[in-house]
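About this split. The held-out portion is used to measure sequence recovery: a designer receives only the structure tokens and must propose an amino acid at every position. Recovery is the fraction of positions where the proposal matches the reference. Here is one held-out target exactly as it appears in the evaluation file.
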């Protein structure tokens, strides 16, 4: 492991500090490319205008026409947190803007698979729909859109995934990543795209005289959902996404949020008045995702749609229970998958350039999480496969992959598919996360072909785990109020949470936790004693070591003490 301190441009840090930014925050922001204080303005007025999105005006006109004729609108969602929040934003937003007939349908992970398929299009038609709207999917659904059009449906695709070689023949497509779209933020989540469509629709309705700037419905109440879906989907938090997330967090902290979001905070044991991006990514997001992994995402969407607090509490408790079940399944699978991955190389060797594992007993709803855990431990692009549970698909394997920086997972799958036609039945995804389906008998071919691409694309530097940090932490900043200050800011993918590094003296260390799998450490940091914990670490540390760590507060009997959360070590 290599610990590398980020470059902190002194002029930018000084300019931010002179503009009134806290000295520590000035240093952190400068290291992340922020040059001036106005870039930190998270006001709604600083959001990129919807007009920059290709196809958004056509989508707004189609939806406005449909509402004028009281057409039935059906949203086809996706079964992850981004898809669930995008669906809830779509349903709530369309109703806010005056749509009388809005319904939704979410595919089942096992029986339907991903996206708008021809059978889904037929089910939408059977519901009496006139207009089909996709959220967080659809850009690759060429056949599904064709079927919907053949059935007489108007189709509006809203998505953020990378398109394939052919675009679907929808009536309107809104996706910042479609060819010819000049929208500056290519990193919006599906929920962000749907929110933007609603902004454009409201402008279209204003232009038609349905309401004016003073009487138009406010779309601000949707921002907590936009923030949740954006962080949970681990998209890059560019300036526009950070503003969307900051606006959502402000409302949640002020107690302005849908009943389901409040109920999820309670079920997760988190405090909404002190909400952070960490809560979205590690507490609320997983509870919603669990429904799509093990049960029915309708539970998650209904939780986000209800305005009844008691109903929301009931649904949040159900989601919490499903998430506990997911953790139990994941724990057993992770252990087995890790043993399989580690059996691919000797203890004295480096892991192979890519990892692919399959076991007939794996649960397809959890393969992505397990792939992520293996990738984190071995620092290799990883695919985990499970046998499909869909009727008639018993001989297919469904895989989910996670990657490391410098290895574009979807492009790698594309190359495997071209080199070995017929091995991959279908695939899709992003640079860091992707999914694919292969025939069971083709698994060995896939494993070798995927490893071959990794062998060609990855060099020793990329295969070395690196932790980027913000360098040493001044002792005067080791305070609970500073930790609170940092937690209030928006951190996440592409705008990394503050991580510090320096050499410390280890006074004592012991294993803690039920399974004795966490290392509790007492250290001397710049002359002062500090408690630290390294989750998942069992090997002891030397007396002096360079640690990479984040800051947290440990509350015990009313006392708040700073502790370091260790991320890595360099001896």
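Reference sequence for scoring:
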């Amino acid at each position: 492991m290599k610990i590398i301190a980020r470059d902190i441009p002194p002029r930018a840090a000084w300019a931010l500090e002179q503009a009134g930014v806290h000295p520590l925050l000035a240093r952190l922001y400068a290291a992340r490319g922020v040059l001036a204080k106005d870039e930190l303005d998270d006001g709604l007025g600083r959001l990129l205008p919807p007009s920059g999105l290709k196809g958004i005006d056509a989508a707004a006109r189609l939806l406005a026409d449909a509402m004028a004729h009281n057409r039935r609108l059906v949203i086809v969602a996706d079964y992850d947190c981004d898809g669930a929040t995008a669906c809830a934003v779509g349903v709530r937003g369309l109703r806010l803007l005056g749509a009388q007939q809005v319904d939704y349908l979410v595919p089942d992970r096992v029986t339907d698979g991903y996206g708008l398929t021809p059978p889904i299009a037929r089910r939408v038609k059977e519901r009496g729909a006139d207009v089909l709207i996709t959220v967080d999917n659809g850009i690759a659904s060429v056949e599904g859109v064709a079927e919907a059009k053949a059935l007489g449906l108007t189709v509006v695709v809203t998505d953020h995934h990378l398109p394939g070689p052919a675009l679907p023949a929808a009536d309107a497509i809104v996706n910042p990543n479609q060819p010819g779209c000049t929208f500056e933020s290519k990193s919006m989540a599906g929920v962000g795209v749907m929110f933007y469509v609603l902004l454009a629709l409201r402008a279209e309705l204003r232009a038609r005289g349905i309401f004016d700037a003073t009487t138009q419905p406010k779309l601000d109440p949707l921002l907590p959902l936009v923030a949740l879906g954006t962080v949970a989907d681990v998209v890059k938090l560019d300036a526009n996404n950070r503003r969307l997330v900051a606006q959502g967090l402000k409302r949640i902290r002020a107690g302005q949020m849908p009943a389901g979001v409040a109920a999820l905070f309670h079920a997760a044991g988190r405090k909404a008045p002190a909400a952070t991006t960490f809560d979205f990514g590690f507490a609320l997001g997983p509870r919603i995702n669990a429904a799509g992994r093990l049960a029915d995402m309708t539970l998650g969407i209904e939780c986000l749609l209800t305005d009844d607090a008691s109903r929301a509490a009931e649904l949040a408790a159900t989601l919490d229970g499903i998430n506990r079940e997911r953790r139990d399944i994941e724990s057993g699978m992770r252990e087995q998958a890790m043993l399989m991955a580690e059996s691919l190389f000797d203890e004295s060797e480096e892991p192979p350039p890519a990892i692919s594992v399959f076991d007939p007993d794996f649960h397809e709803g959890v393969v992505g999480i397990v792939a992520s855990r293996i990738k984190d431990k071995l620092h290799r692009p990883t695919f985990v496969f499970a046998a499909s549970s869909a009727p008639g698909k018993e001989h297919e394997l469904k895989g989910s992959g996670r990657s490391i920086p410098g290895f574009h997972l979807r492009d790698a799958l594309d190359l495997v598919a071209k080199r070995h036609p017929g091995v991959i039945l279908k695939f899709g995804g992003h640079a860091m996360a992707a999914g694919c389906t292969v025939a069971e008998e083709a698994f060995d071919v896939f494993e070798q072909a995927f490893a071959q691409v990794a062998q060609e694309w990855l060099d020793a530097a990329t295969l070395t785990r690196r932790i980027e940090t913000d360098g040493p932490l001044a002792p005067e900043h080791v305070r609970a109020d500073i930790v609170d200050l940092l937690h209030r800011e928006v951190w996440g993918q592409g705008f990394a949470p503050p991580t510090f590094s320096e050499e410390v003296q280890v006074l004592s260390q012991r294993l803690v936790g039920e399974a004795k799998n966490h290392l509790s450490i007492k250290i001397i940091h710049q002359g002062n004693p500090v408690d630290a914990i390294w989750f998942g670490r069992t090997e002891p540390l030397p007396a002096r070591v360079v640690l990479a760590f984040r800051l947290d507060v440990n509350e015990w009997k009313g006392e708040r003490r700073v502790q370091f959360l260790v991320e890595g070590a360099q001896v």
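Annotator remark: The chain is about 40% helix and 20% strand.
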